[in-house]
Design goal:
- It is a single chain.
- The chain has six helices and 19 strands.
- It is α+β, with helices and mostly antiparallel strands.
- The chain has helices at residues 2-15, 46-49, 54-60, 79-88, 92-95, 115-129, and strands at 32-33, 36-39, 43-45, 50-51, 64-67, 74-78, 103-108, 111-112, 137-141, 149-150, 155-159, 169-179, 182-202, 217-223, 270-277, 280-288, 297-301, 308-315, 318-322.
- Strands 9, 11, 12, 13 and 14 form a five-stranded antiparallel beta sheet that branches.
- Among the domains are: 32-109, Sandwich (eubacterium ventriosum atcc fold), CATH 2.60.480; 115-194, no CATH class; 270-322, SH3 type barrels.
- The N and C termini lie far apart (123 Å).
Length: 323
């Protein structure tokens, strides 16, 4: 009897006994769509358009339905479009029993990333990290191709170091948007950084084979972003007396390509070195360590001390050092 009782109890547990009913699985709750929706950001999600339970919100809420309207504009999503889009996303189960209005109006509550914040961040990074002094730089920041939408104004912007380290000429900086100190999004900002410097320019059209005279050139502040530092001249003394190898137009920056390449002093030539210290002149000998052109500085070796120093070329046999 004891064994039979155990078997009877086991049978009730396995197949159910009198008074024990099978547990019913609740039917899926239909999804209700709103007539109007408000969006903060760049995308319309299913969570914006519907009233979802907690479980439904986790499962369906993040689904991207479409891009959000710009601030101040309204998008109208039709019933036919929503049915097509949900089927495209593989969310046919959402349509079962759902009440979809003929059209849903969607507005934007987010804010646009301020252009002045982008420009200020770009300029600050360039001026703080450039090799050149601030007074020699001019920075133009180009507008973003598309507005950047943010949920709110609680966002900070941080410029990231460029991969190539280029901070003159055409510059692209990647910037990180941070909300509450956490990365939210990245954007790329383009700009033009001009390096402006006092350089030697022609005052008139100078023809090939002309010798540059004092009135032919002067110093002007110009953009030299696309020139190498050794290509332009920062003193008129560097070009006066030089012969032009090619024509230079009026107002044109004179570069090393405009001037003849025949050096007055050959590398290895012995030269007279004039040392001028407050009117006290001392003459010594030196050896040119590179070719020398009028007005330009070259390296000169003192044969006794074996030390090198910079001296300005005066003529074919003379260089000058000011102490």
């Amino acid at each position: 009897m004891h064994r039979a009782g155990l078997l009877l109890i086991l049978g009730f547990l396995l197949i159910g006994g009198p008074g024990l009913q099978a547990q019913e699985i609740p039917a899926a709750q239909p999804v209700n769509f709103r007539l109007e929706a408000q969006v903060a950001g760049e995308y319309i999600t299913l969570g914006h358009l519907t009233e979802l339970s907690q479980d439904q919100a986790l499962r369906y809420g993040p689904a991207l339905v479409w891009s959000a309207p710009p601030p101040g504009q309204i998008y109208t999503l039709t019933k036919e479009f929503l049915q097509y889009r949900l089927e495209q996303l593989g969310l046919q189960e959402v349509l079962e029993g759902a009440t979809i209005p003929s059209a849903i109006r969607v507005g934007q509550t987010g804010v646009v990333l301020p252009a002045d914040l982008v420009s200020a961040t770009f300029r600050r990074y360039i001026l703080e990290h450039s090799y050149w002094p601030k007074e020699k730089l001019r920075v133009d920041v180009f507008p973003l191709e598309e507005p950047v939408l943010l949920p709110d104004n609680q966002v900070t912007l941080e410029a990231l170091p460029p991969k190539q380290g280029k901070l003159v000429g055409d510059v692209t900086l990647e910037m990180a948007l941070l909300r509450q100190g956490q990365p939210y999004k990245r954007i790329k900002v383009n700009g033009k950084v001009y390096l402006e410097q006092q350089v030697v320019c022609a005052t008139r059209t100078l023809r090939s084979h002309e010798v540059v005279a004092p009135g032919d050139v002067l110093l002007k502040r110009r953009d030299v972003s696309n020139l190498e530092s050794r290509d332009f001249f920062t003193s008129v003394d560097q070009v006066i007396g030089r012969t032009l190898a090619r024509m230079a137009g009026a107002e044109e920056i004179l570069t090393s390509q405009h001037l003849g390449r025949n050096a007055l002093i050959k590398k290895g030539a012995e030269v007279s070195v004039i040392l001028d210290q407050d009117g006290l002149i001392i003459t010594s000998k030196g050896v040119a360590q590179e070719e020398g052109h009028p007005g330009r500085s070259i390296k000169v070796l003192n044969p006794k001390s074996k030390r090198e120093f910079q001296a300005q070329v005066v003529d074919a046999k003379t260089v000058k050092v000011k102490l």
